[in-house]
Amino acid sequence: MGFTMGLNFLLLIAMVATNILSLYHLSTTVQQSPKPPVPPPVPDHLIRQLNTIRATISHLTRHNPSTSTSTTAAAKPTSTVPQDLLLHSQIGPIASSCHNHPDLLHRYMNYTPFSMCPYDPDLQESLILNGCHPLPRRRCFSKTPSKPSSSSLPLNPFPTSLPDSSVIWNKYSCKSFDCLSKNNPIGFDLNAQRASLLKYSSELDLPINQFMQLAKSANSAIRLGIDIGGGTGTFAAIMKKFYNVTMLTTTMNVNAPYNEAVALRGLVPLHVPLQQRLPVFDGTVDLVRCGRAVNRWIPTAVMEFMFYDVDRVLRGGGYLWVDRFFSKGVDLEKVYGPLIGKLGYKKVKWAVANKTDPSGLKHGEVYLTALLQKPTSR
């Protein structure tokens, strides 16, 4: 009843606003003139108010539960919009892509306020990966591990092991970090990751110590950075431990607790997808690294927006490090190379080599490792 009254009230406001605009037009017309002059344009603030009312009505109409009842057995019931979703929509922004997945959004916001939140990390991941980010806030308490041990939290970003008790494992097939290390060594074998970032075995490699030397030779300070798609945060861990550089790591919990792993190492995880605007201010970081999560599977338009967002957050003279980006060779030449080239960055390193695994050989894929420096001024 209250929802319907609110909708009727908005419709009444829209009607009044439309009449006001009509009266505004009429009031500007000179009567008994042989050639009535063209009325002056409607003030922008009136147009904005009317558009806001129309958009609100359209939004509420799309989500308004049907009040009609059907006697047909095949009729599908319409879910009621959760009240906290309606409340949040009045006080904070909701990403437009959220409205493309109303069923998932309604499930996420269907909870009892001031009690325990539903434990739904898989639902959150689905919404975020579909562009619904940032997620709406909820008025409930997040579940925590049953027996967390703060005394066992490692201070070294390269601990001998990560504490299993600090993670809720219900949604994962593995129930420990040891299991993840054995079944997903690329992601959770911290020592193997560290070795891969420090070694030089081919032209595609850019060891971290070599990068830091290049930056020092160019009188470029490296203090702050972002590692996009940084997995468990090993790149950030090396930068912190050996060079006192603060790195933020963007990562998703796809089939494993990547965010928890980053945080347990004393690092800062950012739970944001690749299509999300980086949550830092313009021109504030010295380095942005794109790890192997950035590759040809990302839609070209998404990638282009991402690179320009990288340009936004990099300071003048900062570095963009593309680490083993892979694509078809012809696409690198005709699509991705020109796309990166639009940034107008200086090529400090640009190395291309064949991807020699079965998939790479089958599809004619190549790797690209590039270190690019943003102009000091534009």
TrEMBL record:
Residues annotated as transmembrane: 7-26
The keyword Membrane is annotated on this UniProt entry: yes
Subcellular localization, as worded in the UniProt entry: Endomembrane system; Membrane
Record's signal peptide: none
Keyword Transferase appears in the UniProt entry: yes
GO biological process, one term: methylation
Stored InterPro entries: Prob_Methyltransferase, Put_SAM_MeTrfase, SAM-dependent_MTases_sf
Entry keywords, A to Z: Glycoprotein, Membrane, Methyltransferase, Signal-anchor, Transferase, Transmembrane, Transmembrane helix
Coiled-coil regions listed: none
UniProt record similarity statement: Belongs to the methyltransferase superfamily.
Name of the protein described by the UniProt record: S-adenosyl-L-methionine-dependent methyltransferase protein
Organism name: Corchorus olitorius
Lineage: Eukaryota, Viridiplantae, Streptophyta, Embryophyta, Tracheophyta
